[in-house]
Amino acid sequence: MITIQPDIIMKPDRWQAVKAGVTTWGRGALPGVMVIVAVMMARLSGALQFWELVAFDRFLRLRPPEPMDERIVIVGITEEDIQRARTYPIPDRDIADLLKRLQTYRPSAIGLDIVRDIPVEPGHAELTSVFRSSKNAIGVEIALPDRSGFTVAPPPALPPEQVGFADFVLDADGYQRRSLLGTNNDRQEYRFSFAIRLAERYLATRGIKLGNGIRDREAMRFGSIEFTRVQPNSGGYVGADAGGNQILLNVRSGTMPFRVLSLEQIKAGQVDPNWIRGKIVLIGMMSFSAKDLASSGAIAGINPGRIYGVEMQAHETSQMISAVIDRRPLLQVWGEGWETLWIAVWGLLGMSLGQFLRSPWKILIGLLVASISPIALCYWLILLGLEFRLSR
Q1: Residues forming a β-bridge with 246
Q2: pLDDT tens-digit profile of 105-130?
Q3: CA distance 325 to 343
Q4: Which residues are CB-neighbours of 129 under 8 A, at least 6 positions away?
Q5: CA 241 to chain centre
Q6: What is the pLDDT of residue 186?
Q7: Residues 75-106: pLDDT tens digits?
Q8: Nearest CA to 192 among 164, 159, 228?
Q9: Can you say whether the dihedral through the CA atoms of 330, 336, 341, 347 is positive or negative?
């Protein structure tokens, strides 16, 4: 004979208490549900985009410092170098001499982040000769038209496979949070970025080639690492311009992400050959008068949010080779459905506090914990990728 234990049968008074509690919660839930719906609508409309991107920048800046990426060396042409040359732009002869000196150290790739579409005498013939004999040199162009419709051609002596564009994508607040890897120029010719050309050259020496993605055929891939393309509504973005092949930019943390040498150091031979041999060398202007600057809220610079353009190119290049060689995590985002669920869960949790916590002080503390917890969790998720990389 089957018997029913008395303790598992809900007593009428207990059932009435639960029913009354549910009814009370339901009546008081309407304002909370309206707030949740309002937050969802504000997010879908883009009203929260600015604040989400600012929080994203701050989280990246608050990460522990990473070790210097010694695979990348920056040779900066400073204001002192300009004053010493007593002319600007720096003449082709000085650039040619710099390239020849660097080649003696046998770098894997040399990226010249200085436009040279027209001669800057003296020394143009000499620079042309150096370009033609340097199979590891990468030059820059400006592939996308500016407001006046102008582009900047690459150095004529370099073949297309040794040219990458220096164009970048800015958000509405003027900060760069995305890296543009490929796009069509004004003649509808597909062009690759300066950073991916450098990464391609460096990784090719290790037998790793650039190819199309597997999950997304339009994405780019080195080996098993596929770079997820930014979509118009990725992460905190709402209706962003996702044209071309863009990825989220995961800058390197720390105040000394790369080794920086001066033009004068190279000329004087004050260089350890091991700093350059087999490495990527980027040459660029590191003078505020040259106005080759980039903006990022995730990088601490001399001026708030301002770094040199060549430094940003180094961050973009480092992100790709670090992901491939070190398995440094790439930035990923949730789908829109998961983000909506995230808002709903935390909203329902906040609504439930008044039901379970009767004391005003307990409710206040509960709200404080519920407000801090998602922020701390988001920061922890960003740190998780960094800690995983450092533990390898």
Answers
A1: 180
A2: 999 999 999 999 999 999 999 999 99
A3: 36
A4: 96
A5: 16
A6: 83
A7: 999 999 898 888 889 999 999 999 999 999 99
A8: 164
A9: positive
The DSSP code for 303 is: B
Cα Rg, the chain, nearest whole Å: 27
**Amino acid symbol at 242:** A
Residues in the chain, overall count:
392
Taking the C-alpha atoms of residue 155 and residue 139, their distance in angstroms, rounded to an integer, is: 7
Question: Among 257, 245, 255, 254, which Cα is nearest to 318's?
Answer: 257
308 three-state secondary structure: strand
Contact 315, 69 (CB under 8 A): no
Q: Do 44 and 238 form a contact (C-beta atoms < 8 A)?
A: yes
Q: How many CB atoms lie within 10 A of CB 100?
A: 15
Measured in degrees and rounded to the nearest 5, phi and psi for residue 30 equal: -55, -50
Tell me the mean pLDDT in the region 164-169.
Answer: 96
- In this model, does residue 341 exceed pLDDT 50? yes
Closest C-alpha among 260, 276, 245 to residue 310: 260
For residues 30 and 18, what is the distance between their CA atoms, to the nearest angstrom? 19
Token digits of residue 78: 């400073």
* Contacts with 233 (C-beta within 8 Å, 6 or more apart), sequence order: 239, 240, 336
CA–CA distance from 26 to each of 19, 21, 22, 30 (Å)?
10, 8, 6, 7
- Measured over the CA atoms of residue 53, residue 220, residue 295 and residue 151, the dihedral's sign is negative
